[in-house]
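2024-03-11 09:14:02 DEBUG pipeline.ingest accepted 1 chain
2024-03-11 09:14:02 DEBUG pipeline.ingest length=230
2024-03-11 09:14:03 DEBUG pipeline.predict start
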Amino acid sequence: MPHSASVPQDRWFSSMIDSRFLAFANGVQAMRRRIEGQGLGICGALGVAGEPYPYQISTVRRILASTRIRHLIADEVGMGKTVQALMVLNALRMEKPQHRTVILTPPRLIDQWHKECWTRAHIKASVFDGSGDLDEDFVRIINPQTLQNRRNSGDEGFEAFALDPDFFDLLIVDEPQLLPIEVIEAVQRASRDFRQVLLLSASPRLGEPYSRNRILSILEPERAMLAEAS
């Protein structure tokens, strides 16, 4: 069913869920891709809509083969960073059905992530923007303002969000260079205790000392602390 980009995401998603035919079709495709994704030795990562490119499969295979999942995917715009992250997410959920993920992304990318989770990975993700109930879905997409304004959580109609490593398994941060400094500092503090971390960036600015140190402090907090101390 065609839909306009101007259609509110809640109405668009509700129409997808409420249509019995679309729900059935999506379920059939999800089951087919789930079976297909178990066939090439990368733990169900191929259970996404579309045909991943060899470089995407290679990246995902390398991430899943690591002893710890703490990686930066630094492909250019349009090279499928979201798809690769969803492939990793599918594999982790295949291994652990109760696996929980929190996705932190700039506001302009929230709708894209919400649709990609549903149409590509067949994941019913919830979006939290500081208002309304906090859904108990296994994948949550968070507006960074809910971290930036935590000190104002007493405001009427606003609810703050905490990056809780005891509740979530995987932290995905999309385009961290576009997030406010206060948000990145919150990510740096919380990421130390997350078991799994993925950073996605088209321009990580690794040539700039400040940006490089910020990324390394998220991915390798122990080494970053030792380097700073020395």
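2024-03-11 09:14:41 DEBUG pipeline.report The chain has nine helices and six strands.
2024-03-11 09:14:41 DEBUG pipeline.predict end
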